[in-house]
Design brief:
alpha/beta
């Protein structure tokens, strides 16, 4: 019945508040209080896309970052084979960032597969998503899944698109997340190709920025995928990564039944791993990719010139073989030639079959040398003008082709 002034000195994690009276002679006490957390509601711009049982699934809205946010955002690149659980992980990660709890009646999808498939039929490669949460500003750079039914050839196309987008759009990066399934007992050729492609794309200076994400993990034992990575080419960079170099996730737990107490325990553990991932991303800081871009452009130019030199060498070897055939013919028919029985020496003509140009591809051929610089070329036609020669890596500052045997100018 007595009213006295109380001061809240500390809020404890277990919802216990220490109360200290302004009257020094008063008895200190601890009172358990049940705090009412404000109910989560979808963002105003979020769009309802479907309902799954009691859950409403909303499309996370496209967010434009301010210049300050762009400068301080954490940038992550996520790569993985088709079926590795990459999309499910990204969607679950966004729900964690937005403080979604199991008891909430809605979830976010950052990537909606039906819409994703439609967009990928038109443009493939990088998809960049901006996330604004209380804990961090995040740019997720998602890649199309490698290893689909079209094989390594399609993977090479995806890598080329990623390479082009990387040069144009990415100036820095915090982390590269390499996604593998917990049950993987060996890296497939596609996974090996992904790993080697990303390393060659960004250079050795990003080795410490790798984090392996083990998906579909719902146990307590060490997943077989960890041993697989330790025994693969991935082991060459593990020593450069500060621990933890891998994290395990069961991304589907966010969609589980909230009335099951075991699901609460599992989600609490999942949130711990998500927080560890966020801390890891922030600790890596943003790594500038300027040097990687310069090295990549130089490497591409060297590769193109090497291919051109191989073609030129092949032509010269064919020419030498032609000369040897003529010498042999002269030696065999020396008497007939001296007697003028043979008026001319037959010359074997070597025909070079050009590589057929596939649909949607372009090639640049010198009109003088009849030399194909490299194939395929990018479509760089702009308002009816071909600006290829002004941006292609094979041209010198004087606009002479570095591939032509005669180093022809751009007018050819």
């Amino acid at each position: 019945e007595l009213e006295i002034d109380e001061i809240i000195s500390n809020i404890l994690v277990d919802d216990v508040i220490s109360l200290k009276s302004s009257n020094n002679n008063a008895i200190k006490d601890e009172i358990n209080l049940n705090f009412i957390k404000p109910k989560n509601v979808p963002l105003p711009d979020a769009t309802l896309i479907k309902e799954e049982g009691k859950l409403k699934i909303y499309q996370y809205p496209q967010i434009e970052l301010t210049k300050k946010e762009e400068a301080t955002a954490n940038i992550i690149l996520i790569v993985g084979q088709t079926g590795s659980g990459k999309t499910t992980f990204i969607n679950a990660f966004v729900n964690y960032l937005m403080d979604i709890e199991l008891e909430d009646d809605f979830r976010y999808n950052l990537i909606y597969e039906n819409e994703r498939l439609k967009s990928e039929s038109q443009t493939k490669g990088l998809h960049i998503y901006n996330i604004r949460s209380k804990s961090m500003i995040l740019k997720i750079v998602d890649t199309q899944g490698f290893g689909d039914t079209n094989g390594i050839e399609e993977d090479e196309k995806i890598t080329m698109i990623i390479k082009d987008s990387f040069i144009k759009e990415l100036n820095s990066i915090n982390a590269i997340l390499f996604v593998v399934k917990a049950s993987d007992t060996r890296l497939t050729p596609h996974q090996k190709y992904i790993f080697s492609s990303i390393i060659s794309l960004f250079g050795k200076d990003v080795r410490k920025n790798f984090i392996s994400l083990i998906t579909f993990y719902n146990g307590t034992e060490k997943p077989s995928a960890v041993t697989t990575l330790e025994q693969s080419d991935f082991k060459t960079i593990i020593s450069f990564i500060e621990n933890p170099w891998y994290l395990c996730f069961d991304s589907k737990i966010i969609y589980s039944d909230p009335e099951d107490e075991l699901n609460y325990i599992s989600y609490k553990k999942a949130k711990t791993n998500y927080k560890c991932l966020c801390d890891k991303i922030i600790s890596l800081h943003r790594n500038s990719l300027t040097q990687s871009k310069e090295n990549l452009i130089l490497r591409e130019k060297i590769e193109m010139q090497s291919k051109a030199l191989l073609e030129l060498l092949k032509m010269q070897m064919d020419k030498l073989a032609e000369i040897d055939d003529q010498k042999k013919y002269i030696e065999e028919n020396k008497k007939k030639i001296n007697d003028n029985t043979i008026q001319y020496i037959p010359k074997k003509r070597i025909e070079y079959e050009p590589e057929p140009i596939k649909n949607g591809k372009k090639a640049t051929i010198c009109k003088v040398c009849k030399w194909n610089c490299h194939y395929p070329c990018k479509d760089t036609t702009l308002i009816g003008y071909d600006v290829l020669k002004y941006g292609c890596k094979i041209w010198t500052w004087g606009f002479n082709c570095t591939f032509c045997p005669n180093k022809c100018p751009q007018s050819c």
